[in-house]
Structures are given as structure tokens and as C-alpha cells.
Amino acid sequence: MRYFSSREIYARLSSIYRKKMATIDEITIMRWCAEVMTEIIRDPENFFYIEDMALGKPKNGLISVPMNVIKVSSVKDKTTERNLTYRFVGNYIHLNSADFQTDIVINCYALPIDEDGFPLICEGFEKACEAYCAVNIYREDFMEGKIDVNRWVALEQEKESELNAAQFAWRDIDRNYVQDLMNIMVNQGYKKIINGKFTR
Q1: Alpha helices in 48-148 (DSSP H)
Q2: Which residues pair with 104 in a beta bridge?
Q3: Is 115 helix (H, G, I), strand (E, B) or coil?
Q4: Would you say residue 194 lies in a domain?
Q5: Residue 20 CA to chain centroid, in angstroms?
Q6: Which one, of 38, 56, 24, 51, lies nearest residue 133 by Cα?
Q7: What DSSP string describes 7-20?
Q8: What is the pLDDT of residues 49-58, one digit of tens each?
Q9: How far apart are CA 104 and CA 172, in angstroms?
Q10: How far apart are the C-alpha atoms of 47 and 160, rounded to whole Å?
Q11: Is residue 160 assigned to a domain?
Q12: Which residue has the higher pLDDT, 24 or 67?
């Protein structure tokens, strides 16, 4: 199975929607592509599990997590391995005590990322990502009456069609692909990336 980066989606969109994309950065497209993957992968537990991701010490009961983390299953004191009570909201873990100052680790589910921290997406999902991004690009214009209803409906219909096609494609992926994903997630180089460079 081959992968592509959300950066490629940014490049494709920039060649199609030149004026609109002049005001949209790569990080925004990265986030939208990540949203596509979390919509398509309804049950990520079987594919992207990471144990003992080190996050460091919280400040005032808060600690940020890498942007590719989808779900946090547990938060532990790194030294004692005691499970901690927490809430996972946005890109932050909220601990019950603001005075907690010990290094923490988490078990979580995450999207694979490339060497620059952009989500890796399996080949065949390009159209779904492009259609989803196109709707987001023009959403504000539609709300402000700058594009007509027919054009907006066409964008929405294309998005739904491509997302549905991608969902069916995901269900048909074989176990070799799942094993490829698992190999990425346990790779030490990958763990180094998500534990260090791309932690906020």
C-alpha cells in the first residue's frame, strides 16, 4: 500500500483554486485532511495504537498532545505508572490537579505522519480529501452569499460522494495494509518524531 502526504493535497488545491488558496496555509489543509481520516476510520483502535507516548510535565494541569492523536485511552504518571484522571479536549489533556508536576505518558490512537508531521493518507483517498477541503474553502463564501446555492450543493454532493467511496475502499483494505500501518506505528523513528519534534 502506498501513502501520500496532505502536502500533496495542498499542492493540488493550489493549482485549482489559485486565488482562494493564496490565503490558506498548509497547516489548515493538514487539519482538514486529518478530519477526513478520522471521519473515514470509524474505529481506529485496531490500527493506530501507541503505548507510553511521553509528553513531559503539565503546566497548571494542562499538557498538549501531538496534532495527529485521535483518541487518548489512558494517562499515567511516568514514574509510578499510576493511572490519572483526565479529560481530552481539543489538543490538550486536562488533569484534575493543577499542582501535578510529574512527567506523564499516554496510551493513544493516532494517525501516521510523514517526516514533516503531516498526516499520511493511503492512496485512493485523494479525491475525498480534495472534495472535503473544497467545501471548507468555499463555506464562508456561501454563508456570505458570494456563491449561489446550486454551486454550493454541487460541492457538497461531490464531497459526500467521495467520502462514501473512500469509506467503502477502507472496508475493503486487506490485512497486509493493516500490518503496514502497525509497522509504522511501532517504528522507533516514528515514535521519536511524535514524541519530540511535533509535540506542541
Answers
A1: 126-143
A2: 56, 77
A3: coil
A4: no
A5: 23
A6: 24
A7: HHHHHHHHHHSHHH
A8: 788 899 999 9
A9: 37
A10: 24
A11: yes
A12: 24
